[in-house]
Amino acid sequence: MPMPTEQLTARRPEIAPDELISSLVPPPRFDGVRFSTYVPNPDEPSQAEAVTACSAFAERVGGSGGAAKGWRALFGRGRKQADRPGLYLDGGFGVGKTHLLASIWHAVPGPKAYGTFVELTHVVGALGFGEAVRRLSGHRLLAIDEFELDDPGDTMLVNRLLRELTDAGVFVAATSNTLPDKLGEGRFAAEDFLREIQSLAAKFDVVRVDGPDYRHRGLPEPPAPYGDDELVASAENWPGATLDDFDALCDHLATLHPSRYGRLVDGVAAVHLRGVRPAKDQAIALRLVAFADRLYDRAIPVLVSGGSLGELFDEEMLAGGYRKKYLRAVSRLTALARDAVSESGARA
């Protein structure tokens, strides 16, 4: 007998201030990853080299004695380039950067924090800059996934935050799809904060991770959209699933800070979206990117009707400064759509 189906649009998740720091841990998909579980592509030597570099960085962080010693005491003016307080993993989507970042986090003793760039800026906004620095400065490691610099305000905020934390002895590891001195290139007002970006880049040793998207190596195209009736039937018969109209979900996402998107989908077994179509504008598109990331973090299968997931972002969007973000979202959603087909078959 069909079950009542929950809607994501009926959820309004909240995160209490005291939870903001304690909840900064790797998402469920990366609970079990370690350096030993990363499988380098034999055709891409940079991947094996990245594992070695990340492992060495984790050992250095683990042996640092914690933030209390301070970077000035450890390195002083003459510290070597390899002793920079930050490690920056650069590469395209689907090469395992997040796997490596989470592996660093797992290999390092606490206290430590792991969050997306959006989550980090939300922590600062909610707690205030001084309180965020106070709470994070006692950490041994801060891991930041998908470093974003989409406006001058965030650039200055994060640059200042990292300067304060590294001065206090905190190590920083980060991922992005762009090299540090290229962050902001092709984005709005890049010329206004180029100097800040260059200052930030100086804190990181860069490790390149090359290769094709592992999620689609030798795999078929994404599954075709379901019919509306078929989609509804799946949602009604999938315990813990949600069913939403795509446009209504897009409107709902606009009412929530992206840092809440993870809490929005916590505990959901599968997401069903009816009437999928290309994003109407860039603001909606960027929210969908953040939403797709949180679905992927939690390995939540995605089923859709209407348009194809591969057509969420039009050619104009894909030609702009956020191209890599949009392609990453399509890559991740496609993988989740394949997961849905596999799980549906297993449940049949």
UniProtKB/TrEMBL annotation:
The keyword Isomerase does not apply. Keywords: ATP-binding, Nucleotide-binding. One of its GO terms (cellular component) is cytoplasm. It comes from the Bacteria. One of its GO terms (molecular function) is ATP binding. The keyword Protein biosynthesis does not apply. This is Putative ATPase. It comes from Saccharomonospora glauca K62. The lineage of its organism: Bacteria, Bacillati, Actinomycetota, Actinomycetes, Pseudonocardiales.
